[in-house]
Write a structure and sequence with these properties.
- By secondary structure, the protein is mainly alpha-helical.
- The protein folds into four domains: 27-117, no CATH class; 131-196, no CATH class; 209-280; 286-344, no CATH class.
- Helix content is 41%, strand content 3%.
- The chain has 14 helices and four strands.
- The chain has a two-stranded antiparallel sheet with strand order 1-2.
- A hairpin with a 6-residue loop joins strand 3 (297-300) and strand 4 (307-310).
- Helix 7 (209-219) crosses helix 8.
- The longest helix is centred in the first third of the chain and has 17 residues, at 107-123.
């Protein structure tokens, strides 16, 4: 059976000319500029933070656009028409809805932005922040040695990304014990105490100042905890934790000393964390057997052949005569069922 083709719609010369005129007269950048001119109902996080507070670009349209309401707008990205300062969307009467980007902000326009900002402030949910996660975002850029190397614009972008991540990761918030709205509002507060918000992160289980300083020396001769960059500090913390975890002291250290050392770059000025040594840590109580005059008892594993320290009650439960008693009784019962003569012989022996 042959398929029947539907007839194509007729393409009139008028429709073709109209579409051609739209492509010529309205390039993509002009269409995008028109979309930016229309403000959304309120400020959203989808705006481009990297465009805020940039110097005037003389190769672009001089109009100020909404930019999702972030700060007080941004410069239009469209190219201006020849011998003018504006693109097609911002040329003509009443086209500069938000004024010129290269002029001071008009009070009326500022009031419009402030009104939208107040709406967002009422609608905004909890904000989440952690200084540790600011570093997690920064460390992927090898050109940055720490959060302090971020520009103000990069810092603001990182703030938003940390909030977005922690909003989705409730388990991470609970693990770190984070509380909402404990965050710098912007890069203007990057040096305020709130920017160091940590609570109690548990990242590195073991720490030794002696080993930590040795790790810093391996990175750079003469490097000290007070002079190390955040990247160097974090690298030395990881190496120190790995070294101690393989040593004997880690297995006998009391659990109260776990995570007692510095957990991030912010703790470098905390003497109570920086001066910890494993030799000073309390050790776990030894399991001794009183019947053997202080010599500990052990049970050998049948799978790995390693001896485990146990107390006297555990030893009495797992020692061979107790552990194998059920097995021995089962074997005796099986043997007597298969060879009743042994039972008869045993009875005769008992009578004699």
């Amino acid at each position: 059976m042959l398929a029947v083709k539907k007839p194509k719609a007729k393409c009139t010369a008028k429709a073709t000319a109209s579409r051609h005129w739209q492509r010529v007269q309205q390039p993509p950048e002009v269409i995008n500029a028109e979309r930016e001119l229309l403000p959304p109902p309120c400020v959203s996080s989808e705006g481009d933070l990297s465009r805020v507070n940039l110097p005037v670009d003389l190769t672009r349209c001089r109009a100020r656009v909404w930019n999702s309401g972030i700060d007080y707008g941004a410069q239009c990205l469209a190219k201006p028409h020849p011998n003018t300062d504006f693109c097609g969307s911002h040329t003509g009467l009443n086209k500069l809805r938000h004024g010129r980007y290269d002029n001071p902000l008009d009070p009326t326009v500022k009031t419009h932005f402030d009104k939208e900002h107040s709406k967002v402030k009422r609608q905004t949910k909890d904000r989440w922040y952690s200084r540790v996660h600011m570093w997690h975002l920064t460390r992927s850029d090898s050109s940055k040695n720490g959060v302090e190397d971020l520009t103000d614009q990069e810092y603001d972008i990182a703030l938003q990304k940390v909030h977005d991540y922690l909003t989705l990761k409730k388990s991470v918030r609970d693990e770190y014990g984070l509380e909402p709205n404990k965050n710098p509002s912007s890069s203007q507060e990057r040096n305020a105490p709130i920017a160091e918000y940590l609570v109690k992160p548990r990242r590195f289980k073991y720490f030794s100042k002696k080993i930590f300083c040795q790790e810093l020396q391996s990175l750079q001769v003469g490097l000290l905890p007070t002079t190390a960059s955040e990247r160097q500090f974090e690298s030395a913390l990881q190496a120190t934790n790995a070294d101690i975890s393989k040593s004997r002291i880690a297995h006998i250290m009391a659990t109260s000393y776990w995570y007692a050392g510095p957990q991030c770059f912010t703790h470098r000025t905390d003497a109570s964390k920086m001066n910890i040594e494993p030799e000073q840590a309390k050790q776990r109580p030894m399991l001794l057997d009183d019947d053997q005059g202080g010599i500990f008892s052990g049970v050998m594993c049948s799978l790995c052949d390693k001896t485990r320290r146990v107390d006297s009650s555990t030893l009495s439960l797992f020692k061979n005569d107790t552990w194998l008693s059920e097995n021995v009784a089962l074997r005796e019962e099986t043997l007597l069922n298969e060879a009743p003569v042994f039972a008869t012989a045993s009875d005769i022996g008992v009578k004699r």
